[in-house]
Amino acid sequence: xxxxxxxxxxxxxxxxxxxxxxxxxxxxxxxxxxxxxxxxxxxxxxxxxxxxxxxxxxxxxxxxxxxxxxxxxxxxxxxxxxxxxxxxxxxxxxxxxxxxxxxxxxxxxxxxxxxxxxxxxxxxxxxxxxxxxxxxxxxxxxxxxxxxxxxxxxxxxxxxxxxxxxxxxxxxxxxxxxxxxxxxxxxxxxxxxxxxxxxxxxxxxxxxxxxxxxxxxxxxxxxxxxxxxxxxxxxxxxxxxxxxxxxxxxxxxxxxxxxxxxxxxxxxxxxxxxxxxxxxxxxxxxxxxxxxxxxxxxxxxxxxxxxxxxxxxxxxxxxxxxxxxxxxxxxxxxxxxxxxxxxxxxxxxxxxxxxxxxxxxxxxxxxxxxxxxxxxxxxxxxxxxxxxxxxxxxxxxxxxxxxxxxxxxxxxxxxxxxxxxxxxxxxxxxxxxxxxxxxxxxxxxxxxxxxxxxxxxxxxxxxxxxxxxxxxxxxxxxxxxxxxxxxxxxxxxxxx
Amino acid sequence: xxxxxxxxxxxxxxxxxxxxxxxxxxxxxxxxxxxxxxxxxxxxxxxxxxxxxxxxxxxxxxxxxxxxxxxxxxxxxxxxxxxxxxxxxxxxxxxxxxxxxxxxxxxxxxxxxxxxxxxxxxxxxxxxxxxxxxxxxxxxxxxxxxxxxxxxxxxxxxxxxxxxxxxxxxxxxxxxxxxxxxxxxxxxxxxxxxxxxxxxxxxxxxxxxxxxxxxxxxxxxxxxxxxxxxxxxxxxxxxxxxxxxxxxxxxxxxxxxxxxxxxxxxxxxxxxxxxxxxxxxxxxxxxxxxxxxxxxxxxxxxxxxxxxxxxxxxxxxxxxxxxxxxxxxxxxxxxxxxxxxxxxxxxxxxxxxxxxxxxxxxxxxxxxxxxxxxxxxxxxxxxxxxxxxxxxxxxxxxxxxxxxxxxxxxxxxxxxxxxxxxxxxxxxxxxxxxxxxxxxxxxxxxxxxxxxxxxxxxxxxxxxxxxxxxxxxxxxxxxxxxxxxxxxxxxxxxxx
Amino acid sequence: xxxxxxxxxxxxxxxxxxxxxxxxxxxxxxxxxxxxxxxxxxxxxxxxxxxxxxxxxxxxxxxxxxxxxxxxxxxxxxxxxxxxxxxxxxxxxxxxxxxxxxxxxxxxxxxxxxxxxxxxxxxxxxxxxxxxxxxxxxxxxxxxxxxxxxxxxxxxxxxxxxxxxxxxxxxxxxxxxxxxxxxxxxxxxxxxxxxxxxxxxxxxxxxxxxxxxxxxxxxxxxxxxxxxxxxxxxxxxxxxxxxxxxxxxxxxxxxxxxxxxxxxxxxxxxxxxxxxxxxxxxxxxxxxxxxxxxxxxxxxxxxxxxxxxxxxxxxxxxxxxxxxxxxxxxxxxxxxxxxxxxxxxxxxxxxxxxxxxxxxxxxxxxxxxxxxxxxxxxxxxxxxxxxxxxxxxxxxxxxxxxxxxxxxxxxxxxxxxxxxxxxxxxxxxxxxxxxxxxxxxxxxxxxxxxxxxxxxxxxxxxxxxxxxxxxxxxxxxxxxxxxxxxxxxxxxxxxx
Amino acid sequence: xxxxxxxxxxxxxxxxxxxxxxxxxxxxxxxxxxxxxxxxxxxxxxxxxxxxxxxxxxxxxxxxxxxxxxxxxxxxxxxxxxxxxxxxxxxxxxxxxxxxxxxxxxxxxxxxxxxxxxxxxxxxxxxxxxxxxxxxxxxxxxxxxxxxxxxxxxxxxxxxxxxxxxxxxxxxxxxxxxxxxxxxxxxxxxxxxxxxxxxxxxxxxxxxxxxxxxxxxxxxxxxxxxxxxxxxxxxxxxxxxxxxxxxxxxxxxxxxxxxxxxxxxxxxxxxxxxxxxxxxxxxxxxxxxxxxxxxxxxxxxxxxxxxxxxxxxxxxxxxxxxxxxxxxxxxxxxxxxxxxxxxxxxxxxxxxxxxxxxxxxxxxxxxxxxxxxxxxxxxxxxxxxxxxxxxxxxxxxxxxxxxxxxxxxxxxxxxxxxxxxxxxxxxxxxxxxxxxxxxxxxxxxxxxxxxxxxxxxxxxxxxxxxxxxxxxxxxxxxxxxxxxxxxxxxxxxxxx
Lengths: 496, 496, 496, 496
Fold this sequence. Notes:
4 copies of one chain form a homotetramer. Chain A is of the alpha+beta class. Helices cover 29% and strands 26% of the residues of chain A. In chain A, the strands form 7 sheets. Chain A has a 7-stranded antiparallel sheet. Chain A has a 6-stranded antiparallel sheet with strand order 6-7-8-9-13-14, covered by helices on one side. In chain A, helix 14 links the parallel strand 21 (366-371) and strand 22 (394-399). In chain A, helix 5 packs across helix 6, helix 6 (148-158) crosses helix 7 and helix 10 (281-295) runs antiparallel to helix 17 (445-453). The relative contact order of chain A is 0.12. Mean pLDDT of chain A is 89; it is low at 1-14, 97-101 and 484-496.
């Protein structure tokens, strides 16, 4: 989903992390479709906590429920699930930046086509969304959301193909970028992954019924079996037959390109118990810590993770270095809703609302602080300060991924390039000084590749996408580079 | 707005009245645009209490607020008005039937066009809305609401004309039915009334700035001056110029047809203090009572209005007959929200939740009960019973409009024809017996025409539209008669 | 209920009327106790719209539901009524001034006594409430609301009598003022009226079960039979027996004093269809208009009521004077919640949010405007202006009650004496000039007495209480005159 | 706070943990009193998430805000903090069982006394609360909540002492049990801890102003300095003087008894970064794991904590045993509100809504699962099953505290004794079989004592209270053993 990050973003409080925007889940032919979708979305909640939506088809009509907030705030309520009968369902959970909070933007989106209704949900971003939007508006289309998903719907609606599946393929052939997409009609569940395979999407099965979802953890929660990853550039069309059996048709409409999964899925986004691209995320993260210990050893008394992201890498670092692993920072999980917009006075407490130093493990110690990544460095600065205030004699920061220099255009919400720590200081020493650390080190790009895939980066044909570290974007960037950069939408503010 | 009346409608409680669906208000070039629109909509609240919406343009972007409930429940809140800056605004208040309650259907609707954004709101109904909807979906349009207003937006978006005004005219030329419509762009406020002039629309002025609204009462509340009625088939385009002055361009794109205003505006819908088609609604209603007294006199001790609709006619009846006018029925104005869906046990109290007999004026009296109209007769039956229970010796019902035989297709929510009292009984005596009255009489169609316009009905060219009484529809009825009758929409249920 | 009217009261908008604070309803031995109580309170809604509460006893425990807002906003919801099982119920609806809005103050209040639970609700005010409160706090009681009702509970709890009925009588013997009170225990429904009979209370019967309520209109809505008024100083104790039969025991614990019902019940508070003290309120109001026409005739073209209060008197004035009665002012019944706290800009529209001039009946006419009473005159001023703006050539104001000079201490919320119009100007001419009327006249006190009771006021022993007009208070005013005037409560602000 | 645990408790879902009921925080003389209290309560959120309340005194009157939900859901909102001006504040956060959810029970409670207002909040429970309640009701007191705190208020109100401090001491001398209590008046902040010191309470200081709170983590969040623990049986009275200085008066009204802090504070309740009784909770928990490894070693491939409670002990177990520590269970922190009352179908997913197995660390491994305690064993059963389903070859459960046999009466919500796992099975083998573990072992009582205090349990005079393990209650249990056991309150259901 496209969005231009508001400049008035809450740097100090809301934190200094990258955000993934979406998780998707779909199932075909199961009598508990909506309940299973709710559970799957709950397992994918880490991919987006702002809003969630589910669409079902009850045999006669499509049903939609969309709600702001957590899946578990709404979709386990019997009254809401009762409004979502039917055996086909797709669902979506999303993160969004300030100012765009509106139910009309919450996916799945639905359209009435001549051939019947279709609902769509996706994770990721289109790099030519604004360009296409401008083209279809020029030919008389009406856009009512600011979501790129709507553009896909228009392309489907305008396709000259007769079958929904062909129309869908026709539409996604025109979309560029990184995405995992689910669509449903009255009888079909369709899954598609972008040609480069930037965003993850897996296929599973429960009681013989096909499921697609962003990560394997959504299969685990419902006891479903993992079948395989949807391949890059693949479209899988599942259709329920009159006799209740399900036909599955996998196509590769796009020219084959090598897959390049997003490394940040391994570094930060995916849940540690998920298996992404056939690799355990937890193991990859521990490996990052192990490699980091080898590359950047330091004398220390305790290895302390910055929770929760840095924990597996810290464990790896501790195991490889022999320095004891200790919980030197305690996380407060009870951060309520209004802490998202606190008074200025409370805002000043910043990082302390979420974290506190465990003085007994810090005082008088040389602390090796392990984090998964550093974006702006504003949080690191505060955490280092908190550790010092708790009595650490030295604070060494070790980061389990390389320095971030470039913005993402495939669904990760990145700050402007000039706000990135790596672009603000000349070298690592200057950065260390800014965050107040006695030393600072980042994992190398090869160290990261080895942690995830077992091999160094192949510069000729990188095995993953790593553009935020290297500037090597896996696709062209039409909206960014083209004339559409200045395009403004007329309507941005609405409660509808 | 099209809607198919739910069969599970609350006959017994929600009452036995016809509903108008909308009021509109728009203003151009005034710094208090949103506040004035909120006040205007408040004055038009009798035309629809379910939901209200306002759109403004703040010089950079369009702003929308839509809310379920009364105007005064939301739009006078400083926090909400602060979200609606700008000097152009249109607003809409609407009534809707059960089951269609959804913010996405609340007007004004907005679309992003190549030439810029446009917002539209209307009162009335299109008789070819479903037909057109099917056509545009067939050519790749996406419809996301069940509102005909969206169809107008699509026609505007698809028009090959370059100026917004020409596109607007192009679109409404394709629409048939009865409507008053307002549109706004970044610089323009456009008003249009259907070729037959079925629904009312007036033009006013405040501080030199043009205003359009459904009734004059919306001008009165803000102290604006009444200029004239928008004529049938007329489109008035007001555009703010770079120097702040306003150009006004009135066009008659449709072939001239004689105006035929809806008689029910006089009988029931319009507020008594409004002037519709140049005639005081209150005076017209009193005249109906006067004519009714002449046509259907009866011996009685008191004339009692059925509040609030029957009050002016009852006063006219009393003045003409010399029988004293008394408040024999007291209305309870504090009917809360859940009384709209009460328990079955409370439902049984039906009419008593809103009305009570003023025993002191009823007991031992021959009561002449005057009502504005009878639809199904279910309420009349209960009110007659309530009057008898309070001790009346005789109850004579006099109705200040003719018998209703036919459904409306121009924005009045009418029950199925076979539910209408006039279609259920052979003659007036049988109806009187059903409702329990000692006698029953309706105003004649000529009596009604004379009360409103001073002359008998001209059968060759009726001065008003009176199809609910006569079956003489002023336009063709494409959706009703054509093949689209069975068209179903896929998505009907949503909280979005 | 005691409360000191906030000075920051919304003079301009919230209006210029007196407020009654409460309506009560109770029933014993009926299986639909809560539903009937909800309906009764709905009929009494004019006595207080801020909040309502119902207590039932289900055979095992007491159940309470309290809600801000209208009865019909909550108590007809099946889910809420389901929480109120049982065959004994009392309920209360109340009006309250700004700043005291809190559920903990909403009646009925409940206390756990050694002899079992008791719930109490009352209409009216105690003139020694603060004095008693101070005394019981001094002896170790804890007060958790700012309601005088709580004081009654304490007195009951501390009584040395053993039976609940005796304790109740013991408590109310200590209370001074004007009140109608209902109490319920596990088996009893008790009704009491103050020794002077200032506030009304009637007894009715449905299906052989006793009912008590503030006005007869609450009997009418449920089809209950009126039995008699509770007498001044009377306590009626109804107790359900093991065999289901009901014992009724009427006592007169206080020394007999002549009854003096509050004249404002006739002038403004009671619903016109109620019978108070054996007299039709509607007939009394019409008589006030008739007497006013005799006392203060004027040449005019139309008699226009200020709705809704002035309507019956206007009808009487018109009938007595022969001047036609017309609806020259239309009331907007759709005033929503936020209009209660509107923006400053909308506030400026003041009276127009509720009323509009019906120009067709005003323009070029000499208007006789009839209102029920004038408190501060701020509303009168605006209404006269509105009538002039609509084109009246003359405006003559006739008020169907005498001038108000004195505050009330028996449950009517009166402004400070120096805010009363009658105290601000030397004579009627000066008042007329202030409100902008060509002439102004008030009904005489004898005219009012004759309208209500058929006889002139007996100065030696007035038949009613009329202290707001005359300063002749029917009881001593201990809190006002005594040392407790300065007593402040520590806690005033809470959302609990 | 007293409450009898509902039998219809959600065994399967809500989990199988003990609940502490409260956290308290108070500060005197600081201009940001309410904000600091909100932050302190946020840090104490783990002690109760159901509701929170804050009382301040603004120099003229007391202010109260009470809200259901998390501190961060409400008390950081500028609008709410603005309602809590003043430099004295106390606050409370609480856990409560089903069916007692009502704002009127939310602390702090307030009472108007003759000597002025007083507000009280406490953590813990009185073992003679019902007995005292019965006594004071018998002498005419009115109880309006079901909270024991109200009983304390009554005792204060009824005390014959003149100063508030003496009255407070008089009251708590009558209360038996385990509690930490804060009280505030217009000028005083009073802290008290029960004679045995069962519940924790610490004293701190910020900008020279005294603070009292349940745990040191509430001092850390605001950067306050820890002064000392309030001693068992101690009452500390802080009073602000006219010159702004603060007098502190520490008293020991009760006869000195040896302190016996609750061991469960170390095992489960307190936050790991808190220092309770001078000992780091985190270090104590790690020691429990170390001792457990020594007492009950087992061959295993990974040590896996049951998050979050078992994590420090698991780390200790791993360090002592040399078996690698791994996150074999991932916790989902995004459990929303309706998951608290999910559909039956979703309920079946039970433990999976909160936890998932990290298959990569489990499959083919011998897993040593470390948990902090076992209550009923229902959750353990499911977690063992989840680990087996993820492919573990063996599952050995090690519990870092002894078996629980006895209920608590000092503020810990314990299930009925017959529901405790230890009471349902004859021996550890039978328990292991029930939960499906290959082996099961509990820490010994001496192992626990050594982990916390460094020494074995002194049977003659135990250093802590450990009644849930041993049945050795540190006080008499009047309500439990006495005649009040059957006392029922009349009113239990209310939304007020």
